[in-house]
């Protein structure tokens, strides 16, 4: 099995899984399994897809079963970033039945949620594959799950915007209003930023775009501009800055936006509104 996307850092995976298991197990553990399943029962199971999509989260699922009980065997069959069809076996799970059942929901929560993001991202990426534009995510993520959700975007063929407020400067309309204009905000940002920190500024019209270009912004976010205005913005910029289109991006509009010549298209929907992909654990109990 080949890993299609570079794996998440193991400490991040272990921490996320540990917190999720603590949340689910509560103060007394899985009392349903303890009450109904013999302590020495073993089980074999498969995690299978119920609908087509793109897989993300396999390492989190593996860590969930491993943390629940070291005797559980977990064999991945499909790598993150791989395509799924209904009935496809994603992984095989074997071992003591009680902990398998106790880990089931947390493992599936990670897989269904992250695979849903990867699947929606792939739909956007496929819609603009005939252009140079790339789909990118935003900070509109579930609190505490940002790194995981951005990883899922990568599994779906998208790219990542900044991870937080500390890894790039993005000057938005409220910053501009307080700073006193686009040029002044960019000037202050350039004076503040280190040589490895990019400065991006959001603009609403072509006048602000030209102001941002004169001020030396590295990246310019074209906010809620219709395709014709985006084309003019691309022509005016002439490669002097990276252009990112944002606002009003849907599967119905993304191709027309990409065809204007912008470099990136950002979408909050690929993380905050992606429907979970249906995967399930099918188990057989062995006495």
What does this 3D model show about the protein?
- This protein has 287 residues and is of the alpha/beta class.
- It folds into 2 domains: 10-123 and 274-286, Quinolinate phosphoribosyl transferase, N-terminal domain (Aldehyde Oxidoreductase, domain 3, Alpha-Beta Complex), CATH 3.90.1170; 126-272, TIM Barrel, CATH 3.20.20.70.
- Helices cover 43% and strands 20% of the residues.
- It contains 11 helices and 12 strands.
- The protein has helices spanning 10-25, 31-36, 58-68, 97-127, 146-155, 173-179, 182-192, 206-215, 227-237, 254-258, 269-272; strands at residues 42-49, 53-54, 73-76, 83-84, 89-96, 134-136, 169-171, 199-203, 219-223, 242-246, 264-266, 279-286.
- The strands form 3 sheets. The protein has a 6-stranded parallel β-sheet.
- Helix 9 links the parallel strand 9 and strand 10 (242-246).
- Helix 7 runs parallel beside helix 8.
- The chain is elongated.
């Amino acid at each position: 099995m080949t890993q299609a996307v570079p794996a998440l850092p193991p400490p991040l995976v272990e921490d996320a899984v540990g917190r999720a298991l603590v949340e689910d197990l509560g103060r007394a553990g899985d009392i349903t399994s303890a009450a109904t399943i013999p302590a020495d029962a073993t089980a074999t199971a498969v995690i299978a897809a119920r609908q087509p999509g793109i897989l993300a989260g396999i390492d989190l699922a593996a860590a969930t079963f491993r943390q629940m009980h070291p005797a559980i065997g977990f064999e991945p069959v499909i790598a993150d970033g791989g395509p799924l069809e209904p009935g496809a076996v994603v992984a095989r799970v074997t071992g003591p039945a009680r902990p398998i059942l106790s880990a089931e929901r947390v493992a599936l929560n990670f897989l269904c949620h992250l695979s849903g993001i990867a699947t929606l991202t792939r739909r956007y990426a496929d819609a603009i594959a005939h252009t140079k534009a790339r789909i990118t995510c935003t900070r509109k993520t579930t609190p505490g799950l940002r790194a995981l959700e951005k990883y899922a975007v990568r599994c779906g063929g998208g790219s990542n915007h900044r991870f937080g407020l500390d890894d790039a400067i993005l000057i938005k309309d409220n910053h501009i209003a307080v700073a006193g204009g686009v040029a002044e905000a960019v000037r202050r940002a350039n004076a503040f930023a280190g040589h490895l920190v990019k400065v991006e500024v959001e603009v609403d019209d072509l006048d602000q775009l030209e102001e941002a270009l004169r001020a030396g912004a590295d990246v310019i976010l074209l906010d809620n501009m219709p395709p014709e205005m985006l084309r003019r913005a691309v022509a005016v910029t002439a490669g002097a800055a990276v252009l990112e289109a944002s606002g009003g991006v849907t599967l119905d509009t993304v191709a027309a936006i990409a065809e204007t010549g912008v470099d990136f298209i950002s979408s909050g929907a690929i993380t905050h509104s992606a429907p979970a992909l249906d995967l399930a654990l099918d188990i057989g109990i062995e006495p």
